[in-house]
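Quick one:
INPUT:
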């Protein structure tokens, strides 16, 4: 689905910007957010064989965030997903424009997905609200903003959680919520998926902090040790590596309990939560 959108957009836009857009969309990520959308959709008995378009919309917002995160005015990084970052592979103006272009692309991908799934009136509006609120000042942008302001300062646990609840957690939480909404789940099940996503989002960031200081750049596909280089506050600084790992595992278990309480099957989502909390890359 991402590949077909990348080809379509590269043809529409053409030239260097088309190439850069395809590069940004198609670099080989883990697609964790897409997997969460699809697993959440299936867990509520979503009637269509695939909600891949909804998953692609989330991955498109994520791709834009990675392109802009790697710009010199943000994390200024060289390596992402085992390849040069978009600003390094192309140039900063191209990467800046392509990042912005991906936001309306995400809206198009979502709208087309809703039409393909034949969702009832109002459902696309709800999904758009969830996705773009998660991507905005109340979510990812707001969290990144706080994170940039916090560089060189030491944050306490509460402040760190607030940063990452937006920066990383919001899109992961929204992935789970969106799977439920697209699957036409009742409100209590959507709420359980959102609570699941909240815990998984935190576990994801904690695991990310652990990997940043225990993994190599080859294993991670991005520059290892970046948090220390940028003097960032991290869960590892506050809890130690073992403490952080324990916290991530506890959150993965807590995430599954939300599903159990709502009577939702936890197989695929539980496996994803476990993978996310203890992943190796
Ligand atoms: C204007 C302040 C402002 C912000 C713009 C750039 C940005 C919006 C937000 C940054 C969000 C960001 C990059 C958060 C980090 C999340 C994170 C840990 C990403 C890595 O996710 P993975 O490991 O990546 O799932 P892959 O490559 O597997 O997809």
């Amino acid at each position: 689905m991402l590949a077909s959108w990348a080809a379509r957009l590269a043809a529409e836009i053409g030239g260097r910007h088309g190439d850069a857009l395809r590069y940004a969309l198609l670099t080989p990520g883990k697609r964790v957010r897409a997997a969460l959308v699809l697993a959440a959709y299936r867990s509520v008995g979503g009637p269509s064989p695939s909600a891949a378009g909804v998953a692609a919309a989330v991955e498109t917002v994520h791709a834009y965030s990675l392109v802009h995160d790697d710009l010199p005015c943000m994390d200024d990084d060289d390596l992402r997903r085992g390849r040069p970052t978009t600003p390094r592979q192309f140039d900063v103006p191209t990467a800046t424009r392509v990042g912005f272009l991906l936001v309306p692309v995400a809206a198009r991908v979502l709208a087309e997905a809703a039409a393909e799934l034949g969702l009832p009136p109002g459902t696309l509006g709800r999904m758009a609200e969830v996705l773009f609120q998660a991507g905005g000042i109340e979510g990812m942008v707001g969290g990144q903003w706080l994170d940039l302001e916090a560089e060189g300062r030491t944050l306490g646990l509460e402040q760190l959680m607030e940063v990452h609840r937006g920066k990383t957690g919001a899109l992961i939480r929204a992935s789970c919520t969106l799977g439920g909404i697209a699957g036409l789940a009742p409100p209590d099940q959507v709420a359980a998926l959102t609570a699941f996503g909240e815990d998984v989002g935190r576990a994801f960031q904690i695991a990310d902090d652990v990997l940043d200081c225990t993994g190599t750049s080859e294993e991670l596909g991005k520059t290892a040790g970046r948090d220390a280089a940028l003097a960032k506050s991290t869960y590892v600084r506050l809890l130690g590596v073992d403490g952080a790992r324990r916290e991530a595992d506890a959150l993965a278990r807590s995430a599954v309990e939300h599903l159990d309480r709502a009577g939702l099957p936890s197989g695929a989502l539980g496996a994803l939560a476990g993978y996310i909390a203890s992943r190796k890359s």
